[in-house]
């Protein structure tokens, strides 16, 4: 439910607070993220848009209410605050002084949901490169590369029996090559050949490129098993060694589909600022899907990953991926 109240005056900004400074009763960020009501401040013409995006969330919002008497322990989020008048910006500053929790709306939703609401993104979000450690810190990139190479070698040694068995059963079940090679778009929009175990009939795309679906008739019996357990992705160890992919990152997509998706999904190509991954946050957080709506949801997780990348996040994704492999909860 969205409540809108646009009353505003200079008197309400000063509010006769007598210089009183209060201390927020929030003891932790977790309390902030559990609030059932938050206040959002944005340019008047964006109110309905903000309300439409947040209307399905599990909390209520009040938009542009500058008549709040007690700001202590209120959660206040702002959107496009640079476009607010100086008086309204001052209200947000004073809210911080008087005990409110104040932060950008996108950042708050990031923390609350673990994904980025891409409909709220603007150019400025991506222009602060230093806020993206994975993009701005060479040490982070070098560490990730070292981990990628080391992990892929260890993974290759451990899974070599599975590698051999999979190759045999694929060859026995259906005619065609064991491996499947396909052009995908990687970092900096550079195309490369991604390697996979073949999980479909060799004539799967005789009628042209098409989305893979959950119960795709083109998938073989062996293919169905190796797709669910992600065994079909194992040959991408080659791509990691070559430096084209990482263990963790956004999944690489085909240029044929990207050209269509970028017309419908804001900043879709930003995922190419980093190396694509064998597994990723979207793969362990969102169920299998093969539609534009599914691509939008996966993009939310991919943007979140790029923004909040850390070694700990990579580790959590890998643990969840192992669960997928062990219990067959993949696509």
UniProtKB/TrEMBL annotation:
Cell compartments where the protein resides: Membrane
Keywords for the protein's UniProt record, in alphabetical order: Membrane, Transferase, Transmembrane, Transmembrane helix
Transmembrane segments: 146-170
Keyword Nucleotide-binding: no
GO molecular function terms listed in the Swiss-Prot or TrEMBL record: phosphotransferase activity, for other substituted phosphate groups
InterPro entries: Bact_transf, EPS_sugar_tfrase
NCBIfam families membership: EPS_sugtrans
Protein name (database record): Sugar transferase
